[in-house]
Amino acid sequence: MTDRETGSESTTLATRARRRLRSFDPMHLAFLALLAIPGYVFEPLAALQFFEVFFLVFLWPFVAPLVDRVVRRGADEAREEPTDWIRMGTWREYAVWLVMIPVTFCNPFVVAQDLLQWLGVPVAFVRHRGSFPDAESYDQRVSYRLPFDGAWTVVNGSHEQEYSHSWFPVTQRYAYDFVVTDADGRTSPADAGFDVGSYYCYEEPVLAPADGVVVDVLDSDVEASRGGGFSHPLKRDIRGNYVVIQHAADEYSCLAHLVPGSLTVEPGERVARGREIARCGHSGNSSEPHLHFQLQDHPDFAIAAGLPIAFDDVAVEWPGATASIGDPRSDTIESASDRDSEAEAGGGPLADGTYRARSHITAGQRVAHVDGDGDDSRRNRSDVASETVDETETRPRDGRRAGTAALQRFGFGTCVGGVTAFFASIFVSWVPIAVLLGGGAAIGAAARTGSAILGGGERGHGSMGTVVGIGTVAAVVAWYGHTAPALGVGLQPLGAVIFFVGFLCYVALGEYDRLQLSRSFPDRTGVRPL
Predict the structure, then answer these.
(1) Distance CA 213, CA 530 (A)
(2) Topology (CATH level 3) of domain 82-384
(3) Where is the M23ase beta-sheet core domain (predicted)?
(4) Could you tell me the residue ranges of all domains in the chain?
(5) What SS3 string covers 102-148?
(6) Which parts of the chain sit beneath pLDDT 70?
C-alpha cells in the first residue's frame, strides 16, 4: 500500500476540504461566457452581454493553487498529498508565476489557442458521441514506453480526476508533466538560481514512446532563459516547441516544451520506439523546464480529446521509498501497478525478476523505464513491420497534408486576428489595430522568407498560413474603417465574427485532416491497427 492509501479514517477537516475543492470543477461555468458573444454581434440580444462576467472563471486554474494552500493550513498529516515531497519552489516562484499570467494573456496567440481548446470541447464531445474516453473503458491500440530514460518524477497528471493535469479542457485531461528530482525532491540544486541550465531535466533526451509517423512539429518557438515561474511573453504556442507522432489510426502522442532547435525529426518521417526526437526544455506555457506528454485522439492539440495511457515496462517508486529506482527487483518499486489487474495488463514477474505489466502512473510517483527489448510480444500487439516500408511512400501523402495544414493554420491566424480586434477595440480605434496586425504579418512573412532563403525554415506545416490569416484580418479591419457607417456593426462584434469564421475553418480542416490520416495510416507505416 502507498502513503496516500492509509489513514483515511483520520483525515482532517482541511484534508476533506481540499478533496472537495479538487472534485469541484467550476470550469464548467466558463461555457456560460460564450452566451455573451451574440450580445455583441446582434443589438437586440445586448442583454446577453451580462454573461461576460463568466469569463472570469477562466482564472480559476490560477487561483485554485492559492485556495488550496489556504485550506491546507492546520492539516496534521505530514504527507497527505502525493506530491508533497516534491520541492518546486517557494512562494516567490508562485508570485512570479501569478505576475506572468496577465503578461501571457496579452499575447493573442495564447488567448486564441486557449479559446480554441474550450470551443474544441463540444467538437470532441460530438466526435465521441457524447462520452469522453476514460481509463476503465478505453483500450489503447499500441504499447507505449515512457518518453525518457532514467528516473523522472510525475509532478502533475493522473488517470484519475483528483490528480489530473486538468480535467477541463478535455484535450489535457490525461496529460502528464515530468521533471527530474534529486533525493530531496528538488528539481534543481538549492543554491543554483533560476537559470534553465541548472534544472536537472533541462536538455535531457526526449524519446519516441512508440513506433509511428511524425505528423507535426514546431522547432523555432522562443524559450525563456530563466525558470522560477518565468515564461517567455512572446511565445507563439502554449506548447512551445513540440512533436506530434501518429501511432495508430486515432492515437497521437504530443511531447511539448522542448528546447528550440533540438528536434531531430520532420513531418512525414517514421520513428522507432525509443529514438531520441528532441531535448527537454522550457518553451511555451512553462514555469520551469519540464516535459509535457499526452496521448490524444486527434493530430491537432486544440480540438483533440485526451486519451488515458498505461505504460509498459515501468518501474514505479512512491515517495518515501528507500531503495534505488534503478533496481526493478526492489520491494519498494511497483513495476506492476497495485491498482491494475496483472491478468488484464498481461504482465507478471519474469525469470529475471522484472515486470512487463502495463501500468497507469500518477502524480507524486518517480518512474523509470525498465528495458523490455527482450520481450517484443506486446510491443504493438500488431506485428510491427514499419521497417519493410519504403520511406518514400509516406512523402506524397505528407505533401497533400501540408496543403491542408496550411489552410488550417490560415484559420488559426484568422482566430488570432479576430481575438486581437475584439479586445483591442476596447481601448483603441481601428487604425492602430490594422497597423498592429498588418505590421505583425509583415514581420512574420519577412522572418519566414529569410529563414527559407538561409536554409533554416521551419519544419512544421503551414507556418506561413498563420501569417496570411493575420494579414487578411488586417485588411478586413482596414476595409471596415472606411465602411463602418454603412455596415452598422461595431469593431468588437466584427472581431467576434472573424474569430468564429476562423474557428469553423480550423475545425472543418482539422477533422478532414484527421480522417485522411486515419484512413491512410496503414499505408504510411505498415503497422496494422488492432
Answers:
(1) 17
(2) Glucose Permease (Domain IIA) (2.70.70)
(3) 203-297
(4) 82-384, 391-525
(5) HHHCCCHHHHHHHHHHHHHHHHHHHHCCCCCCCCCCCCCCCCECCCC
(6) 1-28, 30-31, 40-41, 57-80, 319-357, 372-400, 452, 454-462, 484-488, 522-530
